[in-house]
Amino acid sequence: MNQWEVFVMDPAELAEDQDLELTLRTLNPGIHKYTYKRVKCRVAAAPDRFEDRLQVRLGRGQLSDRRFSIRVIEEVPRIPAKYL
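Above: the chain sequence. Below: its structure as tokens.
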């Protein structure tokens, strides 16, 4: 189980049952803790629907009391393919 964090202005931006493209920060312990990834994912308000967990921070960094579950579908490259 992975633990992720996302920064949004409003938790309503995390639409359920839709493919979203988000920038997530990993909260897994280890050398890669707090690294960012751009991913395609699905989010659910039910904390047990998907295996991974997602915590939400609001615009100024306040931790939201709502918890979500998340499924990362794929990692999105940060550099467009035409520049590789």
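Residues 46 and 75 are 23 Å apart (CA to CA).
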